[in-house]
Amino acid sequence: MSALLHFDAVSKRFAAGLQALSEVSFEVAAGEMVFVTGHSGAGKSTLLRLVNGADRASRGTVLFEGRNLAKLGRRTLPAHRRRVGVVFQDHRLLADRSVFDNVALPLLIAGYAGAEIGKRVRSVLERLGLGDRGAARPAMLSAGEQQRVGIARAIVAQPPLLVADEPTGNLDPQLAADVMQVFAELPARGTSVLVASHDLPLIKRMRRRTLVLDHGRLIDDFRPPAEGGS
Ligand SMILES: Nc1ncnc2c1ncn2[C@@H]1O[C@H](COP(=O)(O)OP(=O)(O)OP(=O)(O)O)[C@@H](O)[C@H]1O
């Protein structure tokens, strides 16, 4: 079976001449949760932006579900974006809409019927411990709740892949652990996860595969040994 995500010798050079990624190759299989780490400026955000179609590789090939993302055009990009949920550090919620409406947005865009939207939004809010916050405006919520609303919005349409860029950067350690727990449960529900983070203690605790970038180069692809293995 082909990989969900495939990077083959991918480089990204910005107009200013800066090489943000150099010949990066790796694959992510369906059902994996993978961290991307490295120093500030190592290329983590750049890598994630190539995956969600926000930017394009300068060289090399990025395949998602077997499709070459270099070939995405105005007509096909929206469909790709619907298959990759995105979580940012600054969750980018709509301030003048309720929590429910914020989370419902991807389903509205995908053309779901009203009753189905209600069912799915209530279910995902419940799962993230936000069952009683649907009517609230984002500004009325704590930072941790707002981040969970952002996650709810990213996963409500059950995309095959979730990419998250420093999703716990603003959260205290307990909330960060809670968010990681939510992510860790996604692969079993059909959503693979790619998380950029520089929080090494957190990554270590999660015991998941970790890609390490250094000045745009992939210098390690670490898979922790299975628990209980010898
Ligand atoms: N649009 C852009 N134009 C020019 N250079 C850019 C652009 N975006 C990123 N860069 C540069 O590419 C390099 C990699 O940046 P990137 O944001 O991917 O790093 P990062 O690992 O996510 O860092 P951080 O942890 O600080 O967010 C940096 O040197 C950055 O300045």
TrEMBL record:
Gene source species? Pseudomarimonas salicorniae
List the membrane topology term(s): Peripheral membrane protein
Coiled coil ranges (UniProt) are: none
Q: Does the keyword ATP-binding apply?
A: yes
User: What binding partners and quaternary form does the record give?
Assistant: Homodimer. Forms a membrane-associated complex with FtsX.
| Record keywords, A-Z | ATP-binding, Cell cycle, Cell division, Cell membrane, Membrane, Nucleotide-binding
What name does the UniProt record give this protein?
Answer: Cell division ATP-binding protein FtsE
All residue ranges annotated as the ABC transporter domain in the record: 5-230
Query: Annotated Gene Ontology MF terms?
Result: ATP binding
GO BP: cell division
